[in-house]
Write a structure and sequence with these properties.
Helix content: over 70%
Number of strands: 0
């Protein structure tokens, strides 16, 4: 009963966190345009943040062996808050990139710790259901943040940043004081020499060899490709609304709010049913193909209403994709290697964001809809690798 109460607190705080984290997404294109920065900066800024998330996610997963998830969530939230203050006061390319790198380091702590918490506390049998619920919370929080950030950004870009920083700080405090202590994995006694050696980010990556199999490696390739596709599309779509269609941040926020409601409907019905009764990998493969087909159908469309309609269709498929892939990884992980698996998952997720954001920014310069085509290719390739992973898994068994 206490676990369910703690999970409720976790979901409420996580909703606030992901809402705050999305405050500045709809105004970032406006900020870049107002500072007269190069077009590629909308992708480079996001990639800089994701880069440190990629490098240090296994590091945060290793730290979980020494510290509680709620302490790491506090540290991550405070650091992220400070990083956004730096982003707020930056006025040139170097300042923005530094602020994004600073934030990315601490975002890695949040990404890894939330995944560990949501898979550890409920138990093995319920982890898939709670991952689906967590995906709903992430999407609804992100959609709400897009809407509120878009509305606030019309009034003041600076005010939006300050509200975000304050909310992130509050979430860190709430995580620490309201969550139940995770005691499933007994933390090791800390000896400083061993501790300093083991938290080396490079060693953290090398330690992943201990649990890696061919099917596991292929599954991680699927996740990386899927995240690249998601990021390429999202980054290009956000900038496309501002630069090509001339829409303000309000329209971006309102559209993402609609997507949040669709995600709630899809994940609480179809996705939950698949996790409980269906073949998760097969369903994920079908959804990846549907994402690819819906994106390619955008390329020949000029009418704005139909363009938005197909975008909504794409986001409906995309909303079910991540919970299914996360659940596939969680079920591949064992009790012994869960921390490292989730650390590597979050690291590759960040790698996908780095590649996706950079590709989106630079490809956009060649043709404004070329990033969309690239996203479609990534989803198609991810579907093929998922079939290969499933085949390899059956042969290993």
């Amino acid at each position: 009963m206490k676990s369910k109460h703690s999970m409720t607190s976790f979901f409420v705080i996580s909703f606030l966190h992901y809402m705050a984290a999305s405050f500045v997404h709809p105004i970032t294109p406006t900020l870049i345009v107002s500072l007269k920065l190069p077009v590629y900066m909308f992708g480079a800024a996001f990639a800089a943040m994701a880069l440190t998330g990629f490098l240090f996610s296994p590091f945060w997963g290793k730290l979980r062996e020494f510290f509680s998830a709620r302490l790491l969530l506090l540290i991550g939230s405070v650091g992220y808050s400070i990083g956004q203050i730096l982003f707020n006061v930056a006025t040139d390319e170097l300042g923005i990139l530094f602020a994004r790198i600073f934030s990315g380091f601490f975002i890695g702590a949040i990404g890894v710790s939330t995944l560990i918490y949501v898979t550890e506390l409920p138990g093995e049998e319920e982890s898939g259901v709670y991952l689906a619920k967590f995906a709903i919370v992430q999407s609804l929080g992100g959609a709400s943040g897009f809407l509120l950030g878009g509305l606030t950004g019309v009034l003041s870009l600076k005010l939006t940043f300050w509200i975000q920083s304050a909310c992130l700080l509050l979430c860190g405090v709430l995580y620490y004081f309201l969550l139940k202590e995770n005691s499933i994995n007994k933390r090791r006694e800390m000896k400083w020499k061993a501790f300093a050696r083991e938290i080396n980010p490079i060693k953290s990556f090398l330690d992943c060899r201990n649990f890696m199999t061919k099917s596991f490696a292929l599954l991680f390739i699927v996740i990386t490709l899927a995240i690249i596709g998601i990021t390429v599309f999202d980054q290009a779509f956000n900038f496309y609304l501002k630069a090509q269609l001339g829409f303000s941040s309000v329209y971006n926020g309102a559209f993402k709010a609609i997507i949040g409601l669709i995600t709630l409907a899809v994940n609480s019905t179809i996705c939950m049913w698949i996790i409980r009764h269906g073949n998760i990998k097969k369903a994920a493969g079908i959804i990846l193909i549907c994402c690819s087909v819906s994106i390619f159908s955008l390329l020949g469309i000029s009418g704005i209403p139909l363009f938005f309609g197909i975008c909504i269709l794409y986001y409906s498929f995309q909303s079910a994709m991540l919970p299914l892939l996360q659940d596939s990884v969680a079920h591949e992980a064992s009790y012994k290697n869960r921390n490292m698996v989730m650390g590597l998952y979050n690291s590759l997720r960040s790698l996908g964001m780095v590649c996706g954001a950079l590709l989106s920014g630079f490809v956009y310069d060649y043709h404004v809809r070329l990033p969309f085509a690239l996203a479609g290719v990534c989803f198609g390739l991810a579907a093929l690798f998922l079939v290969w992973s499933d085949f390899s898994k059956k042969r290993e068994e």
